[in-house]
Every structure is written in C-alpha cells, then in structure tokens.
Amino acid sequence: MAAFRFAAADNAGKEQSGVLEADSARAARQVLRARGLIPLTVEAVVSESQRRGLTMTLGRRLSQTELAVLTRQLASLLGASLPVSDALTVMVEQSEKQSVRELMAAIRTDVLGGASLSKALARHPRQFPGIYRALISAGEESGKLGSVLASLADYIEERAKLQQKITLAFVYPIIVTVVALLVVIGLLTYVVPQVVQVFAQTKQALPLLTRVMIATSDFVRSYGWIVAVAIVLAAFLVSRALRVPAAKLRWHTRVLTLPVIGVLSRSINTARFASTLAILVGSGVPMLRSLQAAGETLTNLAMRGRVMDATSRVREGFSLAKALRADGEERRAGHTRLFPPVLIHLIASGEATGRLPDMLNRAADIHAREAERRALFFTSLLEPVLILAMGVVVMLIVLAVLLPIIEINQLAR
C-alpha cells in the first residue's frame, strides 16, 4: 500500500490534514468519505530519493523488444477478459526487470486512481510514443482494446524484425571493412618500416612499388593522426550542419536520388508509413490524426513533409491517393519521386473499394520485402568487393616487400 498526504473538510467545514495508507488515490478518497470527511487534495507521498530514482528509472526508453513483449502480454491478459487493473497487476508481478516493474506499477496506480489506460500511458511519453497511445485510446473508445493491442504487438514485432534483418545484413561488410583497415594500418606502420631498415643497409635502388609503399608508410606514421582528427572533425561538422532543418531536408531529398541507398531508404520509410497508417485507420482513428501520427514515424524529412502536405490536402477534401501524388513543383525540381507509385495505386484502390487498411497492409508487405531484398542484394555484392579490395591491397604490400628481396637474391647470384 502507498502513503497519501491529504487535506479534507469535515461537516462543520473545519479543514483537516494528515497521511493515510491506501492502494490508490481513489481508495484514499473513499477512506476519507467513510470517515465523514470531504476530500480536498490527495497526493502520493514520495521521498526525494525515491523521486530521483523513479525519474531515472522511468526515464529510460523501452527497447522495441521490451515494448513488443509488454504489449503482447497485455493483449493476452485482456483477451482473457481480465480488467485492465488486474492485467497490470499481473504484469507488475511477472516483470523481471526492476525498471519495467516500476513502470507498470506507476501505470497501475494511475489506472486505479481513475485514469484511463491511454491517459496513464501519456504520463510516460518516452516509453510509449504518440502512435502507441493513439491506438490505445482508439481501442478504449471502440471497446476493442484487446484486439487493438494484439495488432499493435504484431506491428511492433514486424517493424523490429525488418530493422534487425537490415542491420544484420550490413554487419558482416562493416566487420570486413574494419578488419581490412586495421590490417593495412598494421602493415604500413609496423611491417613496412622494419623491412625498410634492411633495404637501407643494402643501398640499392628500390622498385617503384616499394618506394611508393615506403612513402605511404611514412605518411601514415607521420600524419595519420592528423587525417584521423580531420575525419572526426569533418564528421562532427557534418552532423552539426544536418541539425539545421533546411540543410537536413536538402540532404534527405538528395538521399532519395542515390542509386541504392535512395531506393532502400524509400522502401523502408514507405513500409513504415503504410503499416502505421493501416493499423491506425483499421482501429478507428480519424484519418487526419492517423496521417499525422504515421508521418511522425518517417525518418526521411522530405517524405515526412509530403505527408504533412497531404494531411492539409485531405483536410481540404482531397482523397489520400491524390494528396500523396507528386505535384508540378516536385516534377520541376528534378522528378524526385517521394512515395512509390505502387503505394499510391493501392491507396486509391482501397479508397474506392472501402478496404483501405487491407491495401495499406499489402503495400507495407510489398515494400518491406523490397527493402529486405535490396539490402541483401547490396550486401551480397559488397562482401566480395571488400574481400577482393583487401586482398589486392595486402598483395601490393607483400609485393612491395618481396620485389627488393628478389632483386637482392639475383644480384647475389
């Protein structure tokens, strides 16, 4: 039981204050009424150390896996006809992590105090994003909270699965690149200088490849740290420049025109937008609110701006398909296609047949598969290219070392 500090008035109008224990603020008010008092204020008693610890604990952002697990568990419990408060109690008891347990306990306290689940979640915006809370609110209004939570869990799991597949596809090329750079730097900074000392004693003319390798080794040893600092500084300046909204928008627009990365970025954002909009519209969230929430999930600012423009056009009476189509200004800017035609046509078909959520889910599936296929195809080509490049560089270094040795052996004969 928690402690609550209260202020109440008796029948004579005399104010009383004190501390009592109860399960929730609502229970504390009921206790006061049972005593013949009229509750004025009821506040939970939290010490300063507890407040700091609670802020640090509840301030940690939930991972996609944790959010998916919590959503799935809550959907299963509500599907078993448990009240929300009882379901939250079960989740508090079975949570293994202290941070998750305290988060669920805080939400349960708010629900027991009379708040709806969506309002209780709104007090923890770092852990539960706006789209999550909007869907919960829609489920409460429609009376289908359990089914909405099940759909939401599917959405989070599919999104995390796609992100994991694409991330894993690029892990091996990144490891190969890092290992190759370390090997080359090690050869240039340690192996080549050792061999140069041997060649210097012979005082013979060295082959061109060896002289180039020696010059490269000297440069890396003398100025390598300057190059590293310059790269870090350039990366810092670029990151600072991209914090400017106009510069970031231009860069994101440019990214969409790149041969491989542009198509991959467009497919990922399109799949995310379509799946988010499908679950929002399918759960009964109004179209304008759905578009706003779905647009906020896009990482590309150019595509997000198009969704915001489309939201304004839908408010004016346009259909969603027409609102998302490219306008004349975009075509004059270089035929930059923000959203794929497949998405536009499927949305138009969904609006015409009244099956918009189904068509959006189909579009999301198509572009998720396209993003996965593109990522796997690109990395499958990148891996042998990196290995070949590493082999060529190592071969050149080995040849630069072996050629003078071969010439010395020929002269010795």
Q: How do the strands and helices of this protein lay out in sequence?
A:
Layout: E1 2-9, E2 15-22, H1 25-34, E3 38-44, H2 48-58, H3 64-79, H4 84-94, H5 98-112, H6 117-122, H7 130-142, H8 145-202, H9 208-241, H10 245-255, H11 261-282, H12 287-296, H13 301-316, H14 320-324, H15 328-332, H16 341-353, H17 356-412
Helix pairs in contact: 3-4, 3-8, 4-5, 7-8, 8-9, 8-11, 8-17, 9-17, 11-12, 11-17, 12-13, 16-17
Can you walk me through this structure?
- The protein has 413 residues and is mainly alpha-helical.
- It contains 17 helices and 3 strands.
- It has helices at residues 25-34, 48-58, 64-79, 84-94, 98-112, 117-122, 130-142, 145-202, 208-241, 245-255, 261-282, 287-296, 301-316, 320-324, 328-332, 341-353, 356-412; strands at 2-9, 15-22, 38-44.
- A 3-stranded antiparallel beta sheet has the order 2-1-3, with helices on one face.
- Strand 1 and strand 2 form a beta hairpin.
- It is elongated and about 115 Å long.
Features:
413 residues; mainly alpha; 3-stranded antiparallel β-sheet; 3 strands
